[in-house]
Amino acid sequence: MTTIVNRLHLLLTLISMSKAMECQQFRANLEADNKISTQAPSDNLHAVSFATCSRSCINGCECFSFNSRSNMCRLYIHRSSCDPSNMTVSEAGWRSYTIFEIQPTETLPLDCKSLYMNGKRKSGVYTIYPWERSDPNYRPVQVYCDMETEGGGWTAIQRRVNGEESFYRNWTEYKLGFGSPNVDYWIGNNAIHQLTNGRNLSLRVTITPMNGGSVSFKMYHQFYVFGEDLNYTLQLAVPGNGNLDDVLLYSSGGRLTGMQFSTFDVDNDKSSYNCAATYYGGWWFDNCDYAYLNGPWLSNDWHNPWHSQYTTAVDVNGTSMLIK
Ligand SMILES: *[C@@H]1O[C@H](CO)[C@@H](O)[C@H](O)[C@H]1NC(C)=O
Ligand SMILES: *[C@@H]1O[C@H](CO)[C@@H](O)[C@H](O)[C@H]1NC(C)=O
Ligand SMILES: *[C@@H]1O[C@H](CO)[C@@H](O)[C@H](O)[C@H]1NC(C)=O
Ligand SMILES: *[C@@H]1O[C@H](CO)[C@@H](O)[C@H](O)[C@H]1NC(C)=O
Ligand SMILES: *[C@@H]1O[C@H](CO)[C@@H](O)[C@H](O)[C@H]1NC(C)=O
C-alpha cells in the first residue's frame, strides 16, 4: 500500500517564468521515472537545466521529459505521450512532467477581502493582483491589509505611520504608487481605479491624533476613481458613519467628490494657483481643500488635513484610506 501511495505521489512544481510573470504548473509523474515515451517528441533539444526545458514547453506543448544526466529535453504535443502506460522504454535519468493551467483569477487574490475570505486574519503586508494576467497593466501589488477593523478584509490604498516617505510626488509617481506598505505609501492611482472599477466599494478614512487619543474615522460608500483619461476623478455617493465630519461630500468649503487628481506637474484643481505645488502633495484638490491626507508630514504647509477636527499637521500622527 505504501509503495502505491509513493508511486502515485505527485510532485508539484511551480516554475516562475520571468518574462511575463507567467506561472506554469507541471505535475511530475514519478511512476514514469527512468522511462521514455514510445511516441515521437515534437522537439528534442539540449537544455542546461530542468527550468530551461520546462520553459520550452509552450505553444501547444502538453508534456515534457527531462533527463538530468544527459540534459536532454523532449517536448510532446499530446499529454497521453507522457502517460506511464506509454512510457515503457527504460533509460536512466528521465523524469516526465505534464502541464496544467493555473486559473489566475481563481488562485490569485484580487484584494485584501479575497485574502480575508481565504482565511488570512492577521493585519500586515500582502501581495494582491488587481489586474488580470492578460491586462497590459498587470503587476502584483504589495499592500497593507487591515484584517481586524470592522470585519477585516480592508485594502489600504493610502497609509501614513511615521512620515518617512515624502508625498510630494509627480503625476507618474502617484499613478504607479510609491513608498512601503508596512509604513507610508500610496498604492497608485491606476491600482485604485482598477480596484474600484465596476465594483461598489466603501472607503474608510482614518486619522490617528497626535496625542495618543483614539483613531477618528469616516465611512463613505460607492467609492470610485475614474481612469487616467479622466484624470482619476474621485466619486463618492453616500457618506456613512464615523466621528470625522463629512468634508468629502457636503462640506460648505467645497466638495472633493467630482474633482480630478492634481500633482505639482499636472494641475487640475479649481484654484487660480497650483494647490499641489503650494501644499506639497497630490490630491483631488478643489480650491483647494477641506480634507487632504497627503500633505507634508509635521509641516505648516500641510493645509487642512481634515476640517475642522484636524486643521494642522501637528494634530496628525497617522492616516489611512481603506477600501472594501
Ligand atoms: C498512449 O498514446 C496513444 C496515442 O498515441 C493514446 O491513444 C493512448 O490513449 C495512450 N495511452 C494512454 C493510457 O493514455
Ligand atoms: C517623476 O519622478 C520620477 C522619480 O523621481 C522620475 O524618474 C520621473 O522622471 C518623474 N516624471 C516626470 C514626468 O517628471
Ligand atoms: C451599491 O451598494 C448599495 C448598498 O450597499 C446599493 O444601495 C447601491 O444601489 C449599489 N450601487 C450600485 C451602483 O450598484
Ligand atoms: C505617534 O505614533 C507613534 C507610532 O506610530 C507612537 O509611537 C508615538 O507615540 C505617537 N506620538 C504621539 C505624540 O502620539
Ligand atoms: C486631464 O488633465 C490634463 C492636464 O491637466 C488636461 O489637459 C486634460 O484636459 C484633463 N482631462 C480631462 C478629461 O479633463
TrEMBL record:
Q: Does the keyword Signal apply?
A: yes
Q: Where is the Fibrinogen C-terminal domain?
A: 103-324
- Cleavable signal peptide: 1-20
Concerning Pfam families, the annotation shows: Fibrinogen_C
Record has S-adenosyl-L-methionine as a keyword? no
Q: What CDD domains does the record point to? A: FReD
Q: Which GO terms describe its cellular component?
A: extracellular space
Q: Which UniProt keywords apply?
A: Disulfide bond, Signal
NCBIfam families the record matches: GGGWT_bact
Official protein name in the record: Fibrinogen C-terminal domain-containing protein
Source organism of the structure: Magallana gigas
